[in-house]
Amino acid sequence: MLKIRLRRTGAKKQPSYRVVVAESTAPRDGTFLEILGHYNPLTNPTTFEINEERVREWLSRGATPSERVARLLSKRGLVEAPPRARAAATAEANG
Q1: Is 88 domain-assigned?
Q2: pLDDT of 48-72, one tens digit each?
Q3: Its pTM surpasses 0.85
Q4: What are phi and psi of 87, to 5 degrees?
Q5: Where are the alpha helices (DSSP H) in 1-95?
């Protein structure tokens, strides 16, 4: 199964990411099929550049985005935003 996900690059404590298409079983920084763009969360505002045409192509082939990539793509209008998971309230937290 193919995933569109982030691949970490950059120095220690200065992460930046490449948006890549990879097999879901491949390691985070392992082999990938294509680089689609990049994401830098440290800039203000964050930098996110993507090849929208290639993303649409991979989505039509059945690739699924990771949760973080889906959020980033939803800001560009390429996919619907995934619902955020909410933590269940426990008896300890309530009192």
Answers
A1: no
A2: 999 999 999 999 999 999 999 999 9
A3: no
A4: -70, 140
A5: 52-60, 67-75, 91-94
Both structure tokens of 14: 């200065």
Contact (CB, 8 A) for 6 and 32 = no
Burial 3-28 (b: 16+ CB within 10 A, else e): bbbbbeeeeeeeebbbbbbbeeebee
Quote the pLDDT of residue 76: 85
Residue with tokens 């298409």: 21
Total structural domains in the chain? 1
Q: In the structure encoding, which two tokens stand for residue 93, read together?
A: 């937290």
Tell me the residue ranges of DSSP E strands in 1-95.
Answer: 2-11, 14-23, 34-40, 47-50, 64-65
Q: Tell me, what's the pLDDT at 85? A: 72
The residue ranges of the chain whose pLDDT is under 70 are: 88-95
- Strand pairing report for 64-65 and 2-11: parallel
The answer to whether residue 45 sits within a structural domain is: yes
